[in-house]
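Hey, sorry to bother you again with one of my protein questions. A protein chain has come my way and I'm curious about its shape. It would help a lot if you went through both lines with me. I owe you a coffee for this, so here goes:
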Amino acid sequence: CKGPGVCRGGRKDVALRCAASLAAGRQPRCPRLPRPAREETARWSSAAKASAVKINEKASREKILTLESMNPQVKAVEYAVRGPIVLKAGEIEKELRKGIKKPFTEVIKANIGDAHAMGQRPITFLRQVVALCTYPNLLDSPSFPEDAKKRARRILQGCGGNSLGSYSASQGINCIREDVASYIERRDGGVPADPDNIYLTTGASDGIATILKILVSGGGKSRTGVMIPIPQYPLYSAAISELDAIQVNYYLDEENCWALDVNELRRSLNEAKAYCNPKVLCIINPGNPTGQVQSRKCIEDVIHFAWEEKLFLLADEVYQDNVYSEGCQFHSFKKILYEMGPEYYNNVELASFHSTSKGYMGECGYRGGYMEVINLHPEIKGQLVKLLSVRLCPPVSGQAAMDIVVNPPVPGEESYSQFIKEKESVLNNLAKKAKLTEDMFNKVPGIHCNPLQGAMYAFPRIFIPSKAIEEAKTHKMAPDMFYCMKLLEETGICVVPGSGFGQREGSYHFRMTILPPVEKLKILLEKVKDFHIKFLEKYA
């Protein structure tokens, strides 16, 4: 025998069995060798094992990447929407599949705004166009409407090699950016939009992180401060941590339906000037997790404040289609800025964001989005394109999906009636579920829920007795994390504690999506009600 896997007789099958035996730590039994040769093989095998032990000992050297040596900014990142409670929900799901008995039969994940995961049906026209772009042979099929084929052909003509599988320009496919600009002009009543100011992104999150990355600079007291609402969507605090920027909190007014007060903005800004250089103001409208829709007057006040204090405005408008309350209307920051006159419109730097993930579409998985950035310094524009080029381009299928959001069927086209029926059905259902959730929560002692004016979440305030707060401390948990963990373990309902979004000291909340089908949502709300009453009885 010449060693592991080398057969003296030239037999490949025997060589393979020999090597496999040695790898498994077994003595190979070679049918071609006489007994003495087999004994020699055994001695060789023992030597190989000893050598392997030494190699393993060397392999157990200290790791290069540890919690101590890793990037501290990454370690500081927290994202509550997919945090510890969601990991616990996953563990419980595995236990249920193994047949382990629980007081419930399924985990209801109400922690995230993932419409299709909650059973919402896709918009037919959007899927038809993306299917045609993905497999162009379908363009010859009579099963697809002509208006869908027309859009698919236009998108494909903008792709390299007429294929969705090619890279696009870093800023996105040109014809889709043109469609986004046309959409913004229609939405804003004729306010001009330039395709050159449009950047297609991997969801809105990618655009927000990119703009923050290019804005953050300085050190010590000159380090960039980023003003964010509290409660906030944890993307912002996570991105700020990763960039080692300074988070500057301003509080929304819960007693006034989560309104934004400019006096609170001024307090926050003035305090922050003592330890950083605040130069970015983030607004989420409609609000996440709070669901408020800002009035025109509020937006005007915010724009004037940003102009006065020389702040770069970030307007997160991904829920612009999700407005439910009577008397509420979505106003884009771009439109109001334009209508305030040239002194504002030509000077205030504004980045606005939209996405395929929310609205009536709910196409989270495509990761389609765009940002419009206006009044950017020409040299910075080049730097932004350079930064975007590092990630090559956003997913081209997501760009195609975004195109259908901004360029849907119009009256007179073949698909219009089905499209508008599906769109209105989704939005009307969400409006009903928003009112149902608000009404049911406000009937529960110890829970208060502001009107859900927009978006797709409830953020009720919950009363937690002092005895429960003390028990939470023994578990090294925030009180609302303790509450939400108990809710999950006893009912199977997964929601996100308010501490993951930020809240005023001494107040407790949780965020819950209203996306489940109406009947399941009713069951969910009844379970929360029963749990909360028992929780109060136990800890009061």
